[in-house]
Amino acid sequence: MAEIPTPGTGEGQEALAALLAQPHRAVVALDFDGTLAPIVPDPEQARAHPGAVPALARLAPHVAAVAVVTGRPAGVAVRYGGFAGVPALEHLVVLGHYGAERWDAHSSAVHSAGAHPGVTAVRAELPGFLDRNGAWPGTWIEDKGGRAVAVHTRRAQDPDAAFEALRAPLTELAATHDLVVEPGRYVLELRPPGMDKGVALAAYLREVDAGSVLYGGDDLGDLAAYAAVRELRKQGLPGLLVAAAGGTEAPEELTGQADLVVPGPEGVVALLDSLADALGA
Hints:
Helix content: 25-40%
Largest sheet: 8 strands, mixed
Radius of gyration: 18 Å
Order of helices and strands: HEHEHEEEHEEHEEHEHEHEH
Number of strands: 12
Distance between the termini: 11 Å
Number of helices: 9
């Protein structure tokens, strides 16, 4: 039986103790890319770590709920994660597009708020816009189902230079369509304001009347969920913040706020397995 790693903060230790004492009231919520799935050069090739679904399936029957909170369309995360049709995950929920979409395993249905007009307009403008702003070779556009659009610089010859050169003009473009820009690792995502993982997570925790929460993420987009958990802590809800810090890319803004840092998706899987062991799975 693997030992559960000890959180480095008192609040994290209290949250872990609460999860283990009353698992039937605990919610385990996790980001997808970089947390359950290794980061890859082409996001369309991302797939969950081979141990992720088995670990979730061991843990899920012992906790109140398991949720995946992602900026991806819900259906894409389900497909890339291999979450559908897993017997022990009948109550898994995927909150896609930062909560604008939701997939429930028990019904296999996706509920969506529909395309956002500002995102639709920006998506049409982006190819010409990028040509006018340096045409960085290797930079490419990802359409996230009408609720967000992302510009990736990971494949550019100089990913950092392309990222910094495009950040300000993309922010201006977003503002003209009442959107905001969310930076990540070599990605700038344009999406409607008020859509973030913190809003989605807090609403879901209220829905299921959670008694504690574990949230795991790996990038700047997870900071909103971290902030939501910290706010809920003030209201008396124990929360454990986990950072999946694979390689050297994990942002210090995230790891510095985490109660527990694990080595990427492999470390997340090991953590889930150790929790399942502790709960007798």
